[in-house]
Predict the structure.
Amino acid sequence: MIFQPVLNVFLLILLFTPVLALAVWLLVRAIRTPAPGAAGPLMWALRIVMLLAVFGMLLRPGIPGGTSQTLATDTDIIIVLDTTASIAAEDWNGSEQRLEGVRADVQSIVEEYPGARFSLITFDASAQQRLPLTTDTTALISAVEIVRPEVTAQSKGSSISIANTMLQDVLSAAAESAPDRSRMVFYLGDGEQTISDEPDSFSGSAAYVDGGAVFGYGTSDGGPMRITTGSFDAADGGVEYIEYQGQQALSVVDDANLQAIGADLGIPYLLRSADTAIELPEAPTTTTDYAASGEIGNIIELYWIFALVIIAALGIEIARATVLLARMRGQAVRGGAR
């Protein structure tokens, strides 16, 4: 049997010991000097059992279900995500927003590299690191799920290379703190440069990059973009679209810009579409290993046994309280009749 406590065992003991000592003292007092109407020894014994069951449940006992070999990717992966208004253009899988494809691809990246550390950088008018390097893939997926394009009214044009400096800083810091780990970059965007300046080069980051890919989203025909307000409650009906010179503006993928980013970083470029499966490169072989996971995975959880004990004890407590309440009401009715 193994244990996976939700808190440090010593902290759990520190929290439970005073409460358990008080319950034991009340049990002894109930045995020595029983009082009418007060909880008797059996009830205090039941409460002690319930307290111990809570302690046991928080220890999270389990039985290993056997050992297995799981691929552990000893790699730091930085995802650079375009959140300009054009990433919500409606030309993914027909008329869906490009963000839908982005989210699906991020999920595929997470599944492809188990054990890797992930960081998320988003950019529109400015770049920001939404998530530092972490193995918490749930946090990454949640961060991507809640990402919304920049507010249209606040948009002043965007550069596809505005995250260049931040990416280089994150990569260099990762290389300095963990030089034995490899580093991969995945750039997800449509390549549209909406300011007059030429995009900056990403070549300064190339020395830290061991793999990855640039994924492009959009079509040559282009897709319309809704006016975004920052609200999570965009309605399907009555929405307004961005216009340019009196006509509905269309966002078109810029393959040339995305290919240039890939060339700067030394990674391939791939135009994504909903009807083709994503092609992900292998993690650098020198940093990929197989690790036994039998003690942390494939575990038969036993905490539910303690949960059943707690539920049974609470049921008895509720039944006792109901009986006492009924007696009190009966006494009140009889007293009023007199």
In short: Residues 232-237, 292-297 have pLDDT under 50 and may be disordered. The chain has seven helices and 15 strands.
